Amino acid sequence: MNKINNKRVVIIGAGFGGLELAKSLNKKKIDVTLIDRNNHHLFQPLLYQVASSALSPADIAAPIRSIFRYSPNIKIIMNEAVSIDTYTQTVRLNEGSVSYDYLVLAPGSRHSYFGNNQWEKFAPGLKEITDALKIRENLIESFERAEMSASRHDKQKNLTFVIVGGGPTGVEMAGAIAEIARRTLLPDYPLIAENEIKVILVDASSQLLGAYPDALSDYTKSALENMGVEVRLNTRVSDISENVVTTNNGTIEAANVIWAAGNEASPLIKCLDTQMDKIGRAIVDKYMNIPGNENVFVIGDSAFCTDEDGKEVPGIAPAAMQQAKFVADVILHGKSKHFKYRDKGMMATIGKAKAVSVIGKFHSKGLIAWLIWSFIHIFFLIDFRNRLFVMSEWIWFYLSNNSGARLIVNGKRKSKENLSKSKVEC
Fold first, then answer.
1. Active site members
2. What's this model's pTM, rounded to 2 decimal places?
3. What φ, ψ does residue 80 adopt, rounded to 5°?
Protein backbone atom coordinates (compact mmCIF):
# COMPACT_ATOMS: atom_id res chain seq x y z
CA MET A 1 0.00 0.00 0.00
CA ASN A 2 1.44 3.35 -1.05
CA LYS A 3 0.71 5.56 1.94
CA ILE A 4 2.07 8.72 0.31
CA ASN A 5 -1.00 9.03 -1.92
CA ASN A 6 -3.55 7.86 0.62
CA LYS A 7 -6.08 10.26 2.07
CA ARG A 8 -5.54 10.93 5.76
CA VAL A 9 -8.75 10.73 7.78
CA VAL A 10 -8.69 11.70 11.44
CA ILE A 11 -11.65 10.66 13.59
CA ILE A 12 -12.07 12.18 17.04
CA GLY A 13 -14.16 9.97 19.33
CA ALA A 14 -14.72 6.21 19.39
CA GLY A 15 -18.39 6.24 20.31
CA PHE A 16 -21.09 4.82 18.06
CA GLY A 17 -20.45 7.34 15.27
CA GLY A 18 -16.65 7.29 15.33
CA LEU A 19 -16.46 3.52 15.61
CA GLU A 20 -18.94 2.97 12.75
CA LEU A 21 -17.01 5.38 10.52
CA ALA A 22 -13.71 3.62 11.20
CA LYS A 23 -15.32 0.25 10.47
CA SER A 24 -16.73 1.64 7.21
CA LEU A 25 -13.22 2.76 6.15
CA ASN A 26 -11.57 -0.45 7.31
CA LYS A 27 -9.13 -1.95 4.77
CA LYS A 28 -9.72 0.87 2.26
CA LYS A 29 -6.88 2.79 0.65
CA ILE A 30 -7.17 5.44 3.31
CA ASP A 31 -5.01 6.11 6.37
CA VAL A 32 -7.37 6.39 9.33
CA THR A 33 -6.36 7.74 12.73
CA LEU A 34 -8.91 7.13 15.48
CA ILE A 35 -8.41 9.26 18.59
CA ASP A 36 -10.11 8.74 21.94
CA ARG A 37 -9.09 9.57 25.49
CA ASN A 38 -10.21 6.10 26.58
CA ASN A 39 -8.86 2.80 25.29
CA HIS A 40 -12.33 1.29 24.95
CA HIS A 41 -15.59 1.69 23.11
CA LEU A 42 -18.48 1.97 25.55
CA PHE A 43 -22.02 0.80 24.95
CA GLN A 44 -23.58 3.81 26.68
CA PRO A 45 -27.25 2.69 26.58
CA LEU A 46 -26.44 0.04 29.18
CA LEU A 47 -24.21 2.22 31.35
CA TYR A 48 -26.99 2.71 33.89
CA GLN A 49 -26.95 -1.06 34.50
CA VAL A 50 -23.33 -0.80 35.61
CA ALA A 51 -24.30 2.10 37.88
CA SER A 52 -27.09 0.01 39.42
CA SER A 53 -24.89 -3.10 39.87
CA ALA A 54 -26.73 -5.21 37.30
CA LEU A 55 -23.69 -5.50 34.98
CA SER A 56 -19.91 -5.19 35.20
CA PRO A 57 -17.97 -2.65 33.10
CA ALA A 58 -16.37 -5.32 30.90
CA ASP A 59 -19.85 -6.52 29.86
CA ILE A 60 -20.57 -3.28 27.98
CA ALA A 61 -17.12 -2.19 26.76
CA ALA A 62 -14.48 -3.49 24.37
CA PRO A 63 -10.85 -2.38 23.80
CA ILE A 64 -10.61 -0.28 20.64
CA ARG A 65 -7.31 -1.88 19.63
CA SER A 66 -8.87 -5.34 19.82
CA ILE A 67 -11.74 -4.27 17.58
CA PHE A 68 -9.29 -3.11 14.89
CA ARG A 69 -6.59 -5.70 15.51
CA TYR A 70 -6.70 -6.84 11.88
CA SER A 71 -7.10 -3.39 10.32
CA PRO A 72 -3.69 -2.30 8.95
CA ASN A 73 -4.94 1.08 7.72
CA ILE A 74 -6.37 2.14 11.09
CA LYS A 75 -4.13 3.71 13.73
CA ILE A 76 -5.38 4.07 17.30
CA ILE A 77 -4.25 6.95 19.50
CA MET A 78 -5.26 7.05 23.14
CA ASN A 79 -5.09 10.78 23.78
CA GLU A 80 -7.31 13.83 24.04
CA ALA A 81 -7.79 16.42 21.30
CA VAL A 82 -7.47 19.90 22.80
CA SER A 83 -7.60 22.20 19.76
CA ILE A 84 -8.14 22.21 16.00
CA ASP A 85 -6.56 24.44 13.36
CA THR A 86 -8.65 24.14 10.21
CA TYR A 87 -6.24 26.41 8.30
CA THR A 88 -3.21 24.13 8.75
CA GLN A 89 -5.46 21.05 9.01
CA THR A 90 -3.94 19.98 12.30
CA VAL A 91 -5.38 18.53 15.49
CA ARG A 92 -3.37 19.27 18.61
CA LEU A 93 -3.44 16.61 21.32
CA ASN A 94 -2.41 16.63 24.95
CA GLU A 95 0.76 15.03 23.67
CA GLY A 96 1.73 15.81 20.08
CA SER A 97 -0.43 16.59 17.06
CA VAL A 98 -1.77 14.92 13.93
CA SER A 99 -2.51 16.29 10.43
CA TYR A 100 -5.50 15.42 8.29
CA ASP A 101 -7.01 15.64 4.84
CA TYR A 102 -10.46 14.89 6.27
CA LEU A 103 -11.47 15.51 9.87
CA VAL A 104 -14.53 13.91 11.45
CA LEU A 105 -15.58 15.02 14.92
CA ALA A 106 -17.63 12.53 16.89
CA PRO A 107 -16.70 13.55 20.46
CA GLY A 108 -20.16 13.01 21.90
CA SER A 109 -21.66 15.13 24.65
CA ARG A 110 -21.27 15.70 28.37
CA HIS A 111 -23.50 16.61 31.29
CA SER A 112 -25.06 20.06 31.28
CA TYR A 113 -25.89 21.65 34.62
CA PHE A 114 -27.29 24.75 32.90
CA GLY A 115 -24.59 27.04 34.22
CA ASN A 116 -24.45 25.45 37.67
CA ASN A 117 -21.33 23.32 37.26
CA GLN A 118 -20.76 23.36 41.03
CA TRP A 119 -23.64 20.86 41.28
CA GLU A 120 -21.61 18.14 39.58
CA LYS A 121 -19.67 17.45 42.77
CA PHE A 122 -22.89 16.49 44.55
CA ALA A 123 -24.93 15.10 41.63
CA PRO A 124 -22.77 13.12 39.20
CA GLY A 125 -24.03 12.42 35.72
CA LEU A 126 -23.71 9.21 33.74
CA LYS A 127 -21.51 9.31 30.63
CA GLU A 128 -18.48 7.11 31.31
CA ILE A 129 -17.58 3.96 33.20
CA THR A 130 -15.97 6.00 35.97
CA ASP A 131 -19.29 7.82 36.46
CA ALA A 132 -21.17 4.52 36.69
CA LEU A 133 -18.71 3.04 39.17
CA LYS A 134 -18.89 6.14 41.36
CA ILE A 135 -22.69 6.00 41.43
CA ARG A 136 -22.69 2.24 42.07
CA GLU A 137 -20.30 2.47 45.00
CA ASN A 138 -22.14 5.44 46.49
CA LEU A 139 -25.35 3.39 46.35
CA ILE A 140 -23.84 0.38 48.12
CA GLU A 141 -21.96 2.51 50.66
CA SER A 142 -25.22 4.25 51.52
CA PHE A 143 -26.71 0.92 52.51
CA GLU A 144 -23.64 0.15 54.60
CA ARG A 145 -23.92 3.49 56.42
CA ALA A 146 -27.66 3.10 56.92
CA GLU A 147 -27.20 -0.38 58.41
CA MET A 148 -24.81 1.00 61.03
CA SER A 149 -26.58 4.30 61.64
CA ALA A 150 -27.85 5.02 65.15
CA SER A 151 -29.71 8.12 63.94
CA ARG A 152 -33.08 7.72 62.21
CA HIS A 153 -32.44 10.99 60.36
CA ASP A 154 -29.06 9.85 59.01
CA LYS A 155 -30.48 6.45 58.12
CA GLN A 156 -33.29 8.00 56.08
CA LYS A 157 -30.87 10.37 54.34
CA ASN A 158 -28.68 7.45 53.27
CA LEU A 159 -31.67 5.48 51.99
CA THR A 160 -33.04 8.32 49.86
CA PHE A 161 -32.04 8.36 46.18
CA VAL A 162 -32.90 11.34 43.98
CA ILE A 163 -32.69 11.20 40.18
CA VAL A 164 -32.99 14.57 38.43
CA GLY A 165 -34.45 14.34 34.92
CA GLY A 166 -37.38 12.40 33.48
CA GLY A 167 -35.91 11.44 30.12
CA PRO A 168 -34.87 7.88 29.18
CA THR A 169 -31.72 7.92 31.34
CA GLY A 170 -33.57 9.21 34.39
CA VAL A 171 -36.43 6.74 33.98
CA GLU A 172 -34.09 3.80 33.46
CA MET A 173 -31.92 4.81 36.40
CA ALA A 174 -34.88 5.28 38.76
CA GLY A 175 -36.38 1.91 37.84
CA ALA A 176 -33.06 0.11 38.13
CA ILE A 177 -32.25 1.58 41.56
CA ALA A 178 -35.73 0.75 42.85
CA GLU A 179 -35.34 -2.87 41.77
CA ILE A 180 -31.76 -3.29 42.96
CA ALA A 181 -32.38 -1.58 46.30
CA ARG A 182 -35.51 -3.52 47.21
CA ARG A 183 -34.98 -6.91 45.57
CA THR A 184 -31.20 -7.36 45.58
CA LEU A 185 -29.62 -5.29 48.36
CA LEU A 186 -32.38 -5.30 50.97
CA PRO A 187 -32.11 -9.02 51.89
CA ASP A 188 -28.42 -8.48 52.77
CA TYR A 189 -29.20 -5.71 55.29
CA PRO A 190 -31.44 -7.04 58.10
CA LEU A 191 -31.63 -3.71 59.95
CA ILE A 192 -33.18 -1.89 56.97
CA ALA A 193 -36.91 -2.03 56.26
CA GLU A 194 -38.31 -1.79 52.75
CA ASN A 195 -40.46 1.24 53.59
CA GLU A 196 -37.31 3.14 54.60
CA ILE A 197 -35.99 3.12 51.02
CA LYS A 198 -37.03 6.15 48.97
CA VAL A 199 -36.35 6.57 45.26
CA ILE A 200 -37.48 9.97 43.99
CA LEU A 201 -37.54 11.01 40.32
CA VAL A 202 -37.95 14.75 39.76
CA ASP A 203 -38.56 16.55 36.47
CA ALA A 204 -39.42 20.13 35.60
CA SER A 205 -41.95 19.18 32.92
CA SER A 206 -45.50 17.90 33.26
CA GLN A 207 -44.77 14.36 32.03
CA LEU A 208 -42.00 11.79 31.80
CA LEU A 209 -40.38 10.89 28.46
CA GLY A 210 -41.59 14.07 26.80
CA ALA A 211 -40.80 12.86 23.27
CA TYR A 212 -43.07 9.83 23.65
CA PRO A 213 -46.85 9.62 23.10
CA ASP A 214 -48.92 10.59 26.13
CA ALA A 215 -50.20 7.05 26.67
CA LEU A 216 -46.66 5.68 26.99
CA SER A 217 -45.59 8.54 29.25
CA ASP A 218 -48.55 7.84 31.53
CA TYR A 219 -47.75 4.13 31.55
CA THR A 220 -44.13 4.89 32.48
CA LYS A 221 -45.19 7.02 35.44
CA SER A 222 -47.66 4.40 36.64
CA ALA A 223 -45.12 1.56 36.26
CA LEU A 224 -42.46 3.45 38.23
CA GLU A 225 -44.90 4.28 41.00
CA ASN A 226 -45.92 0.62 41.24
CA MET A 227 -42.20 -0.17 41.70
CA GLY A 228 -42.04 2.23 44.64
CA VAL A 229 -40.59 5.27 42.83
CA GLU A 230 -41.98 8.64 43.89
CA VAL A 231 -42.42 10.71 40.73
CA ARG A 232 -42.47 14.49 41.22
CA LEU A 233 -43.39 16.37 38.04
CA ASN A 234 -43.45 20.14 37.58
CA THR A 235 -40.55 20.19 40.03
CA ARG A 236 -37.62 22.35 39.06
CA VAL A 237 -34.28 22.04 40.84
CA SER A 238 -32.89 25.40 41.98
CA ASP A 239 -29.87 24.25 43.97
CA ILE A 240 -27.90 21.13 44.89
CA SER A 241 -25.49 21.00 47.80
CA GLU A 242 -24.08 18.17 49.88
CA ASN A 243 -26.95 15.80 50.71
CA VAL A 244 -29.61 18.43 49.87
CA VAL A 245 -31.66 19.06 46.71
CA THR A 246 -33.62 22.32 46.67
CA THR A 247 -36.65 22.58 44.36
CA ASN A 248 -39.60 24.88 43.83
CA ASN A 249 -41.63 22.31 45.81
CA GLY A 250 -39.38 22.08 48.86
CA THR A 251 -36.08 20.44 49.77
CA ILE A 252 -35.06 16.78 49.76
CA GLU A 253 -32.31 15.36 51.94
CA ALA A 254 -30.50 12.55 50.13
CA ALA A 255 -27.03 11.05 50.24
CA ASN A 256 -27.37 9.92 46.61
CA VAL A 257 -28.27 12.42 43.88
CA ILE A 258 -27.89 11.48 40.21
CA TRP A 259 -28.05 14.01 37.38
CA ALA A 260 -29.91 13.00 34.20
CA ALA A 261 -31.44 16.33 33.23
CA GLY A 262 -29.40 17.67 30.35
CA ASN A 263 -26.48 17.38 27.95
CA GLU A 264 -24.25 19.75 26.04
CA ALA A 265 -21.86 19.20 23.14
CA SER A 266 -18.14 18.68 23.59
CA PRO A 267 -16.25 21.98 24.08
CA LEU A 268 -14.00 20.90 21.20
CA ILE A 269 -16.72 22.14 18.81
CA LYS A 270 -15.85 25.71 19.78
CA CYS A 271 -12.45 25.26 18.13
CA LEU A 272 -14.13 25.06 14.73
CA ASP A 273 -15.25 28.70 14.88
CA THR A 274 -18.57 27.77 13.33
CA GLN A 275 -22.23 28.43 14.09
CA MET A 276 -23.59 26.44 17.06
CA ASP A 277 -26.99 25.88 18.62
CA LYS A 278 -27.86 26.72 22.23
CA ILE A 279 -26.30 23.53 23.65
CA GLY A 280 -23.06 23.94 21.72
CA ARG A 281 -23.63 21.58 18.78
CA ALA A 282 -22.16 22.48 15.40
CA ILE A 283 -24.85 23.31 12.86
CA VAL A 284 -23.97 21.18 9.85
CA ASP A 285 -25.21 21.16 6.26
CA LYS A 286 -26.88 18.30 4.37
CA TYR A 287 -23.48 16.65 3.89
CA MET A 288 -22.62 16.78 7.63
CA ASN A 289 -20.01 19.48 6.89
CA ILE A 290 -19.55 22.68 8.81
CA PRO A 291 -20.14 25.63 6.42
CA GLY A 292 -17.05 26.62 4.48
CA ASN A 293 -15.08 23.45 5.30
CA GLU A 294 -15.84 20.58 2.96
CA ASN A 295 -13.22 18.39 4.60
CA VAL A 296 -14.50 18.84 8.19
CA PHE A 297 -17.50 16.78 9.33
CA VAL A 298 -19.36 16.61 12.63
CA ILE A 299 -21.58 13.65 13.53
CA GLY A 300 -23.47 12.29 16.52
CA ASP A 301 -24.34 14.20 19.70
CA SER A 302 -22.17 17.18 18.76
CA ALA A 303 -23.96 17.83 15.45
CA PHE A 304 -27.21 19.66 14.87
CA CYS A 305 -28.81 18.60 11.61
CA THR A 306 -32.31 18.28 10.22
CA ASP A 307 -34.02 15.67 8.07
CA GLU A 308 -35.85 16.26 4.79
CA ASP A 309 -38.90 17.58 6.65
CA GLY A 310 -36.86 20.06 8.63
CA LYS A 311 -37.13 18.07 11.86
CA GLU A 312 -34.13 17.79 14.14
CA VAL A 313 -32.28 14.48 13.89
CA PRO A 314 -32.11 13.04 17.44
CA GLY A 315 -28.78 12.55 19.18
CA ILE A 316 -29.10 8.78 19.51
CA ALA A 317 -26.86 5.88 18.51
CA PRO A 318 -28.74 4.82 15.32
CA ALA A 319 -28.59 8.39 13.98
CA ALA A 320 -24.85 8.67 14.69
CA MET A 321 -24.21 5.36 12.92
CA GLN A 322 -26.22 6.43 9.87
CA GLN A 323 -24.30 9.70 9.72
CA ALA A 324 -21.01 7.79 9.97
CA LYS A 325 -21.86 5.54 7.05
CA PHE A 326 -22.91 8.56 5.01
CA VAL A 327 -19.66 10.44 5.73
CA ALA A 328 -17.63 7.35 4.85
CA ASP A 329 -19.40 7.24 1.49
CA VAL A 330 -18.66 10.95 0.89
CA ILE A 331 -14.97 10.45 1.69
CA LEU A 332 -14.70 7.39 -0.54
CA HIS A 333 -16.85 8.46 -3.48
CA GLY A 334 -17.51 12.19 -3.21
CA LYS A 335 -20.77 14.09 -2.80
CA SER A 336 -23.56 12.56 -4.85
CA LYS A 337 -26.48 12.75 -2.43
CA HIS A 338 -27.28 14.42 0.87
CA PHE A 339 -27.83 12.78 4.24
CA LYS A 340 -31.22 11.18 4.81
CA TYR A 341 -32.19 10.07 8.29
CA ARG A 342 -34.19 6.88 8.66
CA ASP A 343 -36.06 6.91 11.94
CA LYS A 344 -35.77 3.46 13.49
CA GLY A 345 -37.77 4.38 16.56
CA MET A 346 -37.04 4.93 20.22
CA MET A 347 -37.39 2.91 23.38
CA ALA A 348 -36.74 3.03 27.08
CA THR A 349 -36.73 0.35 29.75
CA ILE A 350 -38.42 0.91 33.10
CA GLY A 351 -37.69 -2.30 34.95
CA LYS A 352 -37.95 -6.05 34.73
CA ALA A 353 -40.39 -6.90 31.91
CA LYS A 354 -41.40 -3.23 31.71
CA ALA A 355 -40.47 -0.90 28.83
CA VAL A 356 -41.96 1.41 26.21
CA SER A 357 -41.12 1.58 22.51
CA VAL A 358 -42.12 3.57 19.45
CA ILE A 359 -41.19 2.00 16.12
CA GLY A 360 -42.95 3.77 13.28
CA LYS A 361 -46.67 3.56 13.95
CA PHE A 362 -46.20 0.59 16.27
CA HIS A 363 -46.34 1.58 19.94
CA SER A 364 -45.79 -1.04 22.63
CA LYS A 365 -45.40 -1.23 26.39
CA GLY A 366 -44.79 -3.80 29.08
CA LEU A 367 -43.30 -7.21 28.34
CA ILE A 368 -43.44 -6.92 24.53
CA ALA A 369 -41.55 -3.61 24.55
CA TRP A 370 -39.06 -5.03 27.06
CA LEU A 371 -38.33 -8.04 24.83
CA ILE A 372 -37.83 -5.73 21.83
CA TRP A 373 -35.54 -3.50 23.91
CA SER A 374 -33.53 -6.48 25.16
CA PHE A 375 -33.06 -8.00 21.70
CA ILE A 376 -31.95 -4.73 20.09
CA HIS A 377 -29.50 -3.88 22.86
CA ILE A 378 -27.97 -7.35 22.78
CA PHE A 379 -27.75 -7.24 18.98
CA PHE A 380 -25.79 -3.98 18.95
CA LEU A 381 -23.18 -5.02 21.51
CA ILE A 382 -19.68 -5.16 20.06
CA ASP A 383 -18.88 -8.85 20.01
CA PHE A 384 -20.24 -12.28 20.78
CA ARG A 385 -18.52 -12.49 24.17
CA ASN A 386 -20.25 -9.32 25.40
CA ARG A 387 -23.59 -10.49 24.08
CA LEU A 388 -23.24 -13.86 25.76
CA PHE A 389 -22.24 -12.39 29.13
CA VAL A 390 -24.96 -9.74 29.15
CA MET A 391 -27.65 -12.23 28.17
CA SER A 392 -26.55 -14.67 30.86
CA GLU A 393 -26.46 -11.88 33.49
CA TRP A 394 -29.96 -10.74 32.52
CA ILE A 395 -31.36 -14.27 32.68
CA TRP A 396 -29.75 -14.85 36.07
CA PHE A 397 -30.98 -11.52 37.44
CA TYR A 398 -34.48 -12.10 36.03
CA LEU A 399 -34.75 -15.49 37.76
CA SER A 400 -32.94 -14.73 41.02
CA ASN A 401 -33.11 -10.95 41.59
CA ASN A 402 -29.41 -11.27 42.40
CA SER A 403 -26.60 -9.36 40.67
CA GLY A 404 -22.92 -10.02 41.12
CA ALA A 405 -21.43 -6.56 40.51
CA ARG A 406 -21.75 -5.26 44.07
CA LEU A 407 -18.16 -4.82 45.19
CA ILE A 408 -16.84 -1.61 46.77
CA VAL A 409 -13.35 -1.04 45.40
CA ASN A 410 -12.67 2.69 45.27
CA GLY A 411 -15.16 3.94 47.84
CA LYS A 412 -14.53 6.57 50.49
CA ARG A 413 -13.61 3.95 53.06
CA LYS A 414 -11.00 2.45 50.74
CA SER A 415 -9.39 5.63 49.43
CA LYS A 416 -5.59 5.84 49.55
CA GLU A 417 -5.84 9.12 51.40
CA ASN A 418 -7.85 7.58 54.22
CA LEU A 419 -5.65 4.50 54.35
CA SER A 420 -2.51 6.61 54.59
CA LYS A 421 -3.98 8.48 57.56
CA SER A 422 -5.18 5.40 59.43
CA LYS A 423 -3.08 3.92 62.22
CA VAL A 424 -3.85 0.61 63.86
CA GLU A 425 -2.96 0.47 67.54
CA CYS A 426 -3.29 -2.78 69.48
1. 172
2. 0.88
3. -120, 130
